[in-house]
Design goal:
By secondary structure, the chain is an alpha/beta fold. The protein is built from six helices and ten strands. Bound molecules: S-adenosylmethionine (SAM).
Length: 252
């Protein structure tokens, strides 16, 4: 994979699309899934069910949200690891992704009530305003190297949600010091539902090179401020200062 040399948002988005298309062609499951899950189709989709049960269902219940009759939108759907489960609970599911190759593979499963659509990587053009009841994204913003694209997705989530609609967005919520294309990151580990998280969470410090795999971290305050500036009300946060930070709430 060639390295991106981005100067502008447009070149970042071009690099993101090119690199994720390459990953989708090389071995989509390996680039999408948790490292410890076997790279085999049944295990891949089963991990989507585990994540859905862990990160989505309890949130819907907490928000008193009944998904029947409702439309869900997933930003960065990949090849439909979560789509398969979300589309069973919602009346309609829309998955969008920057990579047309991911979208082609996701569509090939012909999931009932699901549709897939390629997007620019920084907006939801093509999704009508106030047409969606739940916006969700998982394991996507952590890879996005340009914060403008992430914050624009917040604005777009606010645009496409109906009033009273809810959202849950995952991002890397670490403390970070940008050093050009390098970044120093610090925080606490969170290994998700697939691996045992140690009882005592020992903080880590690491150096990362910014590209289309290692994206920007968003601090908890920054995430809440940007969300609320779009008209979204943040009602639920989790995993602050970990790679598994969640911001959730409702459109007023
Ligand atoms: C690690 S995979 C996760 C896929 C899916 N969310 C899941 O959990 O199975 C990351 C996905 O995000 C997509 N992606 C990366 N940057 C994106 C962007 N700026 N906009 C939309 N999708 C993006 C990639 O093409 C890829 O399909």
């Amino acid at each position: 994979m060639t390295d991106a040399s981005p100067n502008t948002e447009k070149t970042w988005l071009d690099a993101i699309r090119r690199d994720w298309d390459t990953r989708a062609r090389e071995n989509a499951r390996a680039y999408i899934n948790w490292p410890d899950v076997p790279n085999e189709e049944n295990a891949f989709f089963a991990s989507g069910k585990t994540d859905y049960d862990h990160y989505v269902t309890p949130f819907l219940e907490k928000m008193n949200f009944d998904p029947r009759e409702k439309t869900a939108l997933e930003i960065g759907c990949g090849i439909g690891r979560i789509a398969r489960w979300m589309s069973q609970d919602f009346a309609q599911y829309i998955g969008v992704d920057v990579s047309p190759e991911m979208i082609r593979k996701a569509s090939s499963y012909n999931l009932p009530r699901a549709q897939f659509q390629a997007v620019s990587g920084g907006d939801l053009a093509g999704i009508p305003s106030e047409s969606v009841d739940f916006v969700w994204s998982f394991a996507v913003f952590q890879h996005v190297p340009d914060k403008r694209a992430i914050f624009n997705y917040f604005r777009e989530a606010a645009r496409v949600l109906r009033s009273g609609g809810i959202f849950r967005l995952h991002m890397k919520g670490l403390w970070t010091l940008p050093l050009g294309r390098l970044m120093l990151e610090a925080g606490f580990p969170d290994r998700g539902p697939h691996q045992k998280t140690p009882r005592f969470k020992i903080p880590f410090v690491r150096l990362r090179y910014l590209d289309t795999w290692q994206g920007r971290s968003i601090g908890p305050d920054e995430a809440v401020q940007h969300c609320e500036s779009t008209g979204l009300e943040v009602l639920d946060t989790a995993g602050e200062w970990t790679p598994m930070m969640w911001i959730g709430g409702r459109k007023k």
